[in-house]
Amino acid sequence: MGAHSHDLTPHQSVRHFFGAELRHRRQAAGLSQADLARMVLAAPSLVNKVELAQRFPSAELTVRCDRALDAREVLIRLHGFAVAERAAQRAGAAVQHPAVGLTGLEAVALRQLLLAVLRPDASAGPVAGVLERIDVALAGSDDARRRRVVAARRQP
Description:
Layout: H1 14-28, H2 33-40, H3 44-51, H4 59-68, H5 74-91, H6 104-118, H7 125-139, H8 143-154
Helix pairs in contact: 1-5, 2-3, 4-5, 6-7, 7-8
């Protein structure tokens, strides 16, 4: 069945994590790389190279794998993060991919982490802007709710 799990380095990058997640889900489904390749109309060598992060998966392959493995769009979201990471590496800066968003729980966790690590400096500079954007995203379009979230953030 190709390379062993210890050959994977999911901590190295999002693309590596994507490959490890693809392998995990494929193996959990009891499929070989050749089986999955047949299901998604790809070469087994391509599946192998994506799992090992030697090839970047196309959006189309990602969607087909996500559906074949019943991954509930996990692979699709990871692909979005991998695209953003690749864009940032190419640009030499941190670039946010517009199609990648945080879930409400992820946004809350990020906000709490920023406050815990950076307090009391969280109320000034670029961090304040990040917190404001998170608060607005969490509050949605309801202005009254947004004001309550922002006011709560300013309380010690």
